[in-house]
Amino acid sequence: MSHPGPVDEPDKRTLRRDFLAARNRLTPDDVREAAEALAGRALGLPEVAGAHAVAAYVSVGAEPGTLALLDALRARGVRVLLPALLPDNDLDWGEYTGEGSLARVRHGGRMELFEPAGERLGPDAVTRADVVLLPGVAVDGRGLRLGRGGGSYDRVLARLAAAGARPALLVLLYDREVVARVPAEPHDRPVDAVVTPSGVRRFR
């Protein structure tokens, strides 16, 4: 008996396109104000307040902003790890030591990313983080995340599981990106909480 591909893939693509189109309508002021609110909410979480190491990412374009949070974490003495995209879509990691430690990198025809310019620590470095911030475009009432579609963070989650690592999994989103349901697959793993400018919602 043959099994077709995931039936929800077109739904994922459509949803992703709609959410990204809504982000692209935000003004720079909207993005900046949301980033400041997100940083304040995230820094107030006990998991973040007690973290020694946080794996994060640098937001680009109209993504919910992360730089204010990264700098606040560094000011607290937290080790901040940032991803570097590998040719096979897996992620290596490097340390963030301020905006001067970032390099602007273009991968093929895709958007430019900001990646750590210094020493690479290896894909397994993420397993030593107390908190992992996952990028996404939506999360649903079960805590299931709709990602950007590249699969890089599915590998991160699989690596964490294989290592027996249990960091807090957080996603930063705009308020309207918390929805009733997103298409899911059996391997999808729920996040622990979503942080939006107006508050925090926990899932477990």
Automatic annotation (TrEMBL):
GO terms for biological process: folic acid-containing compound biosynthetic process; tetrahydrofolate interconversion. Its EC number is 6.3.3.2. ATP binds at K12, R13, T14, L15, R16, R145, L146, G147, R148, G149, G150, G151, S152, Y153. Its cofactor is Mg(2+). GO terms for molecular function: 5-formyltetrahydrofolate cyclo-ligase activity; ATP binding; metal ion binding. SUPFAM superfamilies: NagB/RpiA/CoA transferase-like. InterPro entries: FTHF_cligase, FTHF_cligase-like_sf, NagB/RpiA_transferase-like. The keyword Translocase does not apply. Substrate binds at V58, E63. It catalyses: (6S)-5-formyl-5,6,7,8-tetrahydrofolate + ATP = (6R)-5,10-methenyltetrahydrofolate + ADP + phosphate. NCBIfam families: MTHFS_bact. This is 5-formyltetrahydrofolate cyclo-ligase.
